[in-house]
Amino acid sequence: MDGIMQITGGGQKSRTRMMASPGQKVVLITGCSSGIGLRMAVMLAHDEQKRYHVIATMRDLKRKDKLVEAAGDAYGKTLSLAVLDVCNDESVKQCINGIKDRHVDVLINNAGIGLVGPVESIPIEEMKKVFETNFFGVIRMIKEVMPDMKKRQGGHIIVVSSVMGLQGVVFNDVYAASKFAMEGFCESLAVQLLKFNVTLSLIEPGPVHTEFEAKMIQEVKQKECPGADPETVNYFKNVYLPSSIDIFTLLGQTPDDVARVMIEAKRPRFRNLTNPFYTPIVALKYADETGSLSVNAFYHMLFSMGPLMHVCITAMKYLTCGCLRSRAISPN
Ligand SMILES: NC(=O)c1ccc[n+]([C@@H]2O[C@H](COP(=O)([O-])OP(=O)(O)OC[C@H]3O[C@@H](n4cnc5c(N)ncnc54)[C@H](OP(=O)(O)O)[C@@H]3O)[C@@H](O)[C@H]2O)c1
Fold first, then answer.
1. Which of 13, 38, 111, 227 has its CB 3.0 to 4.6 Å from that of 31, i.e. a possible disulfide?
2. pLDDT of 7 higher than 70
3. Which tens digit of pLDDT belongs to each residue from 115-130?
């Protein structure tokens, strides 16, 4: 395929030539300015067999430098850039219309934002922004790309969810809800899509060292939490934050680890937990239909065990990482 793609948005107007060769799969990824999206884009573009042409999208091209640098020689060959804001109908349409024949073989919905804090201190508007990005942003993309995939009887839609789409985490109430919503949506849609030979896969990372983590820590430190009582604010800042930093330090994966999970396997699967540590945690939830087991376990881990939690997490890390392997799906 030799397509011209119109790039517009945020006052920026430029054109890029897309050079996907015959037989190459067109992979469109959202949120490639940093983190997991950036690494997925680079790894796919560097595929030794050059099986993919990657359209790496971001909402602001001023943030492209890290990606362009990491892509190196692949930039302009197996990787091109386009503007895309998942919260904007027009931006999504323009991007997909700019692709030759609107042909996308693999859609990777990666763009997402986090939100932490006591619920009573977060304005509803801020919560809506999370759903607008993490939930409606993905649906907006799928609505634009899926009909063509169904017509062609082929395609792969990948959604970067989170382990928090399977298990709620204290003070991440709204973020977890947005990912749970996505999981329910995908579970429902995957069945219908099979009839059209379109595959849907969820990637469920635990903590990953990206700007996401830095933004979260910054956000907690700066938050004044208006509307929340002092006891709750104390739990948030002095119990949740240190535990959260601990968890990121001990269990955090790199964006490359997550990207590899997606790329290195032979056959796509529906659910893909990238971090083996979380397999028993999710199993615990489903082992007890009353839900009390996991609620109580998390309660004791956070509020009763204090510093012991660090020891427990370290022990669990060593217990699980040797015997459980990451699952992988490849975008094909
Ligand atoms: N890091 C973790 O611990 C973790 C764990 C589980 C799941 N995840 C999920 O992984 C995905 C990627 O996150 P990350 O860790 O790589 O964080 P990140 O480094 O903050 O990357 C998020 C990306 O999403 C983009 N984005 C945000 N709003 C957007 C919008 N409206 N339209 C288009 N792009 C938008 C950001 O672009 P800008 O540069 O313009 O802001 C950025 O490129 C998210 O869906 C997140 O929920 C992350």
1. 111
2. no
3. 999 999 999 999 999 9
Domains and CATH numbers, the chain: 3-281 (3.40.50.720)
DSSP per-residue codes, 280-306: HHHHHHHH-TTSHHHHHHHHIIIIIST
pLDDT score at 317: 63
pLDDT at 261 over 90: no
As a whole number of angstroms, the distance between CA 171 and CA 54 comes to 36
- What does the alpha-carbon distance between residue 111 and residue 37 come to, in Å, rounded to a whole number? 7
d(CA 9, CA 60): 8
Pocket of ligand 1 (CB under 6 A): 30-31, 33-37, 58-60, 63, 85-87, 110-113, 133, 137, 160, 162, 205, 207-208, 210-213
Whether residue 54 is annotated as binding a ligand: the answer is: yes
DSSP string, 171-233: T-HHHHHHHHHHHHHHHHHHHHHHTTTEEEEEEE---B-SHHHHHHHHHHHH---TTS-HHHH
CA of 133 from ligand 1 middle (Å) equals: 9
* Cα–Cα distance list, 270 to 49, 89, 195 (Å): 25, 27, 15
Task: Please spell the DSSP secondary structure of 232-272, one letter per residue.
Answer: HHHIIIIIIHHHHHHHHHHHPBPHHHHHHHHHS-SS--SEE
**Relative to the CA of 60, which ligand 1 atom is closest?**
40
Catalytic annotation present for 318 = no
